[in-house]
């Protein structure tokens, strides 16, 4: 079970066609990796968040990561030509603060 499917991503971005599926999928994976890195998650922690929902802490972390990944995806999609990655990273740090502090 992926954190965010391509269909969910397209719906969030309000994209109705399949013309940009490949690009959206690449941006989605990039957004996920960026959020994992900003949150300072290990591969094991990321796998737990990405696939398990058997505890309140994991479910909370999963929802936080979903919000951050969708935000990053939308930012990367909308600012393909002139993205300010420093600004994006600072915003993601704020969104992922609880995960960065070792809640997971």
Summarize this entry quickly.
The protein has 104 residues and is mainly alpha-helical.
Structure description:
By secondary structure, the protein is mainly α. It is built from 6 helices and no strands. Helix 2 packs across helix 4 (56-78). The longest helix has 23 residues, at 56-78. The two termini are 19 Å apart.
What's the arrangement of secondary structure elements?
Layout: H1 6-13, H2 21-39, H3 43-51, H4 56-78, H5 85-95, H6 97-100
Helix pairs in contact: 2-4
- Head-to-tail CA distance between termini: 19 Å
Q: Note the total helix count.
A: 6
Largest sheet properties:
none
| Helical residues, percent | over 70%
Please tag this protein with its features:
globular, mainly alpha, 6 helices
